[in-house]
């Protein structure tokens, strides 16, 4: 804890010390709502686990529900804290890395869930800020050896990687989110 700040944590439930995020908010600012995870499953009561119901009232936005087992898996690694400050909703996210086929499936599901969650908030007229380690080498200029990466993944083009395609669709001009770091490091 840091004096003068409130801390909003999410930590892994599957591999101790593996991943997690924290958002520090300086006093006297207080979020209207805080939520751990991307799916709402961490805010359900144990008897809610069998049905894909929306999160409890009072949490941040409503969004398409996921089956409990899928939601539990996506939120088990402590990768997201969402804070509603009224003027905007802040997502603090540590996206999963694509280290192989199994993790690629997890990353794809995680990315799609984030995109759905953000879209619902934007459609409701909310301002959304995503502060994240996206764990994607977005453009060739960002990668130390883009040709080798293509070979490693069996790709003809660098942008064919599923996570890169997702990011292209999430960010403007193809998506609704603006990359504030664009131009910094080629981003």
UniProtKB/TrEMBL annotation:
Reported cofactor(s): Mg(2+); Mn(2+)
Keyword Nuclease: yes
Site (Transition state stabilizer): 135
Cofactor binding remark: Probably binds two magnesium or manganese ions per subunit.
Stretches assigned to the Endonuclease/exonuclease/phosphatase domain: 12-147
Superkingdom in the source lineage: Eukaryota
Listed GO biological process terms: base-excision repair
Keywords (A to Z) from UniProt: Endonuclease, Exonuclease, Hydrolase, Magnesium, Manganese, Metal-binding, Nuclease
GO cellular component terms, A-Z: nucleus
Xref: InterPro entries: AP_endonuc_1, Endo/exonu/phosph_ase_sf, Endo/exonuclease/phosphatase
Residues that bind Mg(2+): 133, 135
Region (Disordered): 42-62
GO molecular function: DNA-(apurinic or apyrimidinic site) endonuclease activity; double-stranded DNA 3'-5' DNA exonuclease activity; metal ion binding; phosphoric diester hydrolase activity
Family as reported in the entry's similarity comment: Belongs to the DNA repair enzymes AP/ExoA family.
Name the UniProt record assigns to this protein: Endonuclease/exonuclease/phosphatase
Organism encoding this protein: Jimgerdemannia flammicorona
């Amino acid at each position: 804890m840091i004096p003068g700040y409130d801390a909003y944590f999410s930590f892994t439930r599957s591999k101790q010390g593996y991943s997690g995020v924290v958002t520090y908010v300086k006093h006297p600012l207080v979020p209207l709502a805080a939520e751990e995870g991307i799916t709402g499953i961490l805010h359900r009561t144990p008897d809610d686990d069998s049905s894909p119901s929306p999160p409890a009232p009072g949490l941040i936005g409503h969004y398409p529900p996921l089956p409990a087992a899928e939601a539990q898996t996506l939120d088990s690694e402590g990768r997201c804290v969402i804070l509603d400050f009224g003027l905007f909703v802040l997502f603090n996210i540590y996206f999963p890395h694509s280290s192989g086929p199994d993790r690629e499936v997890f990353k794809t599901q995680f990315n799609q869930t984030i995109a759905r969650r953000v879209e619902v908030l934007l459609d409701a007229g909310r301002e959304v800020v995503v502060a994240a380690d996206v764990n994607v080498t977005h453009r060739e200029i960002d990668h130390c050896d883009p040709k080798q990466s293509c070979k490693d993944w069996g790709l003809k083009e660098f942008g064919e990687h599923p996570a890169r395609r997702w990011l292209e669709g999430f960010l403007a001009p193809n998506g609704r989110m603006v990359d504030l770091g664009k131009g910094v490091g080629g981003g």
